[in-house]
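Re: the multi-chain job from yesterday

Posting the exact lines I submitted so nobody has to dig through the queue logs.
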Amino acid sequence: QKEVEQNSGPLSVPEGAIASLNCTYSDRGSQSFFWYRQYSGKSPELIMSIYSNGDKEDGRFTAQLNKASQYVSLLIRDSQPSDSATYLCAGGGDYKLSFGAGTTVTVRA
Amino acid sequence: DVKVTQSSRYLVKRTGEKVFLECVQDMDHENMFWYRQDPGLGLRLIYFSYDVKMKEKGDIPEGYSVSREKKERFSLILESASTNQTSMYLCASRGRLAGNNYEQYFGPGTRLTVT
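And the result, structure tokens for all chains:
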């Protein structure tokens, strides 16, 4: 079993809709969780960090963390064509992060 | 803004050559990482360093070595490049925020082709 699993995708949403991405993790010792956006041929870009249970909002992005259920999610509101990318979920403890395989999101104009 | 730079965006090397990939960060971060990313295999950790002159093997260290002589610089060395090391190489740097929180940032990547 992979330490971080992204089990949704690929995802195609119309412009203006909400894109919902999910991620589960197996290591209960993981303390910190991140969402990265990666455009084709580019490196991952950190877009959200979340460390405690609950929701964290940053602009059109909302990250949710539920440590009891061991899942992390990312909502992208009012999706734009520029949001079309692969989104990587990552989680970890003191030293190493484990990354999911990524979810590819396509926003249809 | 955190800045992580890598010495080359694209590199073409021949089989058997010794290859050096360099990474520099400007935020005084203690932890630095080297990953490779391949289609269908995702991000895989090669080596990481949690302090100067310290290094730890990641998940796929075979065929690679690293050097961290200065805090800001972390080098990845391919001792004898092989075609199966053709990949996107990503350096990352991690810095602590308040408390025990941290954030990890990636460099722009080096696309290495071994022929």
